[in-house]
Amino acid sequence: MSNLGLVAIACGLIVGLGAIGACLGIAMMGGKYIEASARQPELMEKLQTKMFLLAGLIDAAFLIGVGIAMMFVFVKPFGA
Length: 80
What we know:
With 80 residues, the protein is mostly helical. The chain has helices spanning 3-39, 44-75. The protein has a domain at 24-74. It has two helices and no strands. Helix 1 (3-39) runs antiparallel to helix 2. It starts with a helix and ends in a 5-residue tail after the last helix. The relative contact order is 0.16. The model has no long low-confidence stretch (mean pLDDT 89).
């Protein structure tokens, strides 16, 4: 297998595993938010603010992985 094929596999793994991790993280966090807001409805606004902040950070980590994968694809790190 050539170096270009290995780069394609690595980029697919970066994007795929990053997407799965981000989806699972946001799903778990959303479930815990629903549980916490059902137990203590008076804290719902504070928890919602923190939940959206963390959702943005989780998505940012995934998008950084996508950016790194795109850099590997388009920069041609193994020469011409």
